[in-house]
């Protein structure tokens, strides 16, 4: 069903008219005849002078712009050089939007110039759309979106083009090149602010692009996915009412995919949920809810239910890495909402107490396993002592993060008792000294935090009624949590930095 969900998103995102709306071309002068003569520097200089004379100059420039945008359709060269072709494009994208904005003023279609410029604007948008579909130059794409942003207020007057431009901008936003991504994002943000098209439709177009580009994950794509995630969350902040509806729509879509697998579970069906596309989409929605808790807090419970369902689908050991991703998502939700989520501990203990970790390990020469960039473990890794130690490390770190969420709660000594009992019981059966030591260290950290809260209780001389819920000051577990988060962030920085250095050397 996950594949079906992915296909539906892709098909919907690719829906657009096969043909552009009919373009109204600017009228040509009587002396303007079709010629095989190449357009060179002389013609370019004449156009630069004529553009300063107003609408008539704009018409001449627009004719050249149309030819430049459609030069790929011609069998013979039109321009004397690539430089002239490029200058025509840059001049048009920079000067025409300025002219439209200046001539139309603030009242736009009520302006006396509207009838004169209507067809010119229509032609400019049509050819710019063609250009954005074929051009590869980062600089030109950036200039094009700057020009479109300049006349964003006019776009709602041309709905037949604004819809297509938004879709193309969303598509280019999915490009890996940062300049293209950021310039298209800047235009999308402006379009959302001015409500060029329906806000929900715009946000859905952006989400679909993210979903389509989040199918795979690697260290080389990490920054790209992270940047897209931050851009989308920022867009949501411009209209939280529309954002609520969009987040609800896609949470429901993810929950329906989950429901289908729960009804008819199988190994293949589990794979439709345990993949990067589903995880990245879920993380995007979670990050959105966490960023705007005041307006989107009601969606936190459906998100929690989806995560719980995902954690309960299977207990196959090879999927422990992706389960840790889901658990960290719940920990982030707990920290944001400042509400204790009790289901986190049982799922962490389920991994920790797994029978697969008690099996005899085999000597292997496998590389270090990076849980940040992994969804499942191979058979060789499952029997590796190194992998088991890393898994225990990740589980204990996650447990500390989870307990730190209620580390300053006045009731922490009581909350930690079930966790402490389960961990101590488990240490009696662990054969590996390193693993046992790591679990005992985690128990000590939790006990130290409980002692800290107990001391605070005595100092506060708590009344039987009306006692505070939390104690003041930083608790010991917060310090440990900060160390874990810094270490994880350093691993990400180190891997990305080393990858950038390798690419620089290759270049």
TrEMBL record:
Signal sequence region: none
Segments of this protein annotated with the region Disordered: 1-35
Matching Pfam families: Noc2
Subcellular location: Nucleus
UniProt-listed GO biological process terms: ribosomal large subunit biogenesis
Keywords from the UniProt entry: Nucleus
One Gene Ontology term, aspect cellular component: Noc2p-Noc3p complex
Stretches with biased composition (Acidic residues): 9-32
Domain of life, per lineage: Eukaryota
Family membership noted in the UniProt record: Belongs to the NOC2 family.
Name assigned to this protein: Nucleolar complex protein 2 homolog
């Amino acid at each position: 069903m996950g594949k079906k969900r992915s296909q539906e998103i892709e098909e919907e995102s690719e829906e657009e008219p096969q043909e552009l709306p009919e373009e109204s071309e600017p009228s040509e002068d009587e002396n303007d005849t079709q010629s095989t003569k190449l357009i060179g520097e002389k013609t370019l200089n004449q156009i630069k002078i004529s553009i300063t004379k107003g609408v008539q100059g704009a018409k001449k420039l627009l004719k050249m712009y149309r030819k430049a945008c459609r030069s790929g359709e011609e069998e013979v060269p039109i321009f004397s050089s690539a430089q002239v072709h490029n200058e025509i494009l840059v001049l048009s994208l920079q000067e025409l939007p300025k002219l439209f904005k200046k001539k139309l003023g603030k009242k736009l279609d009520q302006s006396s110039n509207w009838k004169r410029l209507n067809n010119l604007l229509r032609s400019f948008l049509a050819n710019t759309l063609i250009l954005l579909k074929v051009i590869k130059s980062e600089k030109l794409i950036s200039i094009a979106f700057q020009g479109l942003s300049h006349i964003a207020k006019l776009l709602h007057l041309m709905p037949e083009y604004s819809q297509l431009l938004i879709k193309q901008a969303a598509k280019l936003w999915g490009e890996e090149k940062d300049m293209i991504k950021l310039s298209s994002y800047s235009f999308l943000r402006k379009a959302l602010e001015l409500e060029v098209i329906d806000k929900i439709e715009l946000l859905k177009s952006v989400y679909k692009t993210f979903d389509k580009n989040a199918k795979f994950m690697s260290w080389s794509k990490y920054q790209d996915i992270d940047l897209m995630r931050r851009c989308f969350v920022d867009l949501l902040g411009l209209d939280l009412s529309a954002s609520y509806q969009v987040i609800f729509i896609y949470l429901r879509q993810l929950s329906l995919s989950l429901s289908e697998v729960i009804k008819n579970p199988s190994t293949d069906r589990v794979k439709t949920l345990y993949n990067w596309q589903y995880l990245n989409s879920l993380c995007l929605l979670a990050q959105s809810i966490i960023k705007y808790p005041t307006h989107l807090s009601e969606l936190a419970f459906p998100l929690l239910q989806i995560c719980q369902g995902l954690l309960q689908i299977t207990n196959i050991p090879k999927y422990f890495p992706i389960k840790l991703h889901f658990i960290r998502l719940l920990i982030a939700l707990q920290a944001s909402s400042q509400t204790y989520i009790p289901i986190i501990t049982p799922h962490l203990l389920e991994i920790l107490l797994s029978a697969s970790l008690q099996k005899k390990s085999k000597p292997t020469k496998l590389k270090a396993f990076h849980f940040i960039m992994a969804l499942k473990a191979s058979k060789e890794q499952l029997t590796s002592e190194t992998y088991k130690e890393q898994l225990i490390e990740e589980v204990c770190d996650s447990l500390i993060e989870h307990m730190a969420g209620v580390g300053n709660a006045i009731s922490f000594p009581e909350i930690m008792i079930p966790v402490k009992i389960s961990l101590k019981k488990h240490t009696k059966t662990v054969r590996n000294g390193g693993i046992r030591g790591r679990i005992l260290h985690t128990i000590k950290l939790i006990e130290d935090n409980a002692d800290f809260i107990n001391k605070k209780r005595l100092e506060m001389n708590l009344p039987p009624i009306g006692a505070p819920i939390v104690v003041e000051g930083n608790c010991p577990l917060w310090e440990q949590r900060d160390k874990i988060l810094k270490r994880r962030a350093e691993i990400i920085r180190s891997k990305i930095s080393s990858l950038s250095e390798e690419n620089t050397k290759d270049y």
